[in-house]
Amino acid sequence: MKFPGSRRYAEQGAAATGRFSITLPASMAQPDTVASSAKTLNLPASGGGSAALAVENLHKRYGAITAVDGVSFNVDRGEIVALLGPNGAGKTTTINMILGLLEPSAGQVRIDGIDLRTHREQALARTNFAAVYSTLPGNLTVRQNLRFFALLYDVADCATRIDELLEEFELSRFRDTKCGLLSSGEQTRAALAKALLNRPQLLLLDEPTASLDPSAAQLVREEIRGLAAIRRCGILWTSHNMQEVEAVCDRVLLLSHGKVLLEGEPRSLPQRHGAASLEDLFIRIAREPLSAHSGGLA
Fold it and tell me: How far apart are alpha carbons 1 and 193 in whole angstroms?
């Protein structure tokens, strides 16, 4: 298995699809008919040296409950950052605010230097997302799914781009297979191909290798590292696989009770806090109350 290659990568679109089905209009059902109705985005210039993602003092409150409490961090270009924390720590809420699916109670999200609140469409045009729980519509073929999202993202020469991604992710033989008939690993590859359609400045990956066998997972990790290194794409990665985080990520953020408690390089951070490994440090944070960390971990 050679997928994915290290040729051209992809750009755009924060679309968390979930499980649903789509009925294609007749024009899209024909593979050779390219009639995109998506408008061309009038994008403001990106911030040149801006971080791929800048999150500043982000809050999310639900009545008396604070799900995210003053979270701030950057993801630089070419950097892979892991957002870690136990269930209920605020990771999903934070990601949903970055994707524009939730309105922050306070704070700011900037993607490639563009304010998500004031230029939502332009910011999200530089973003994409893939998650093991967000599968592509099962009643569409692989090619139809990629075409559907390519039209949403207004991908130039989308037929060529789709063929490139089908080849790079070794999906060419499944191009006319409905996604609902694919194995979980094949569905993950298709979702990653979708996530790279428009060459994102920011890519959010939630457990991207969870359903892959070890060999395929290693190849996907290599592709993602190549994407960061070659395309200078910023990547925000969430995972419960600490060994994978150590192997892939440049920096980790550990969340608990909606706050960033610790930040650092995945191999040195545990040593600084007296833990044998990143997994041990994660377990300690998950089991201790927030008050135990108010002055920092021992």
Answer: 16
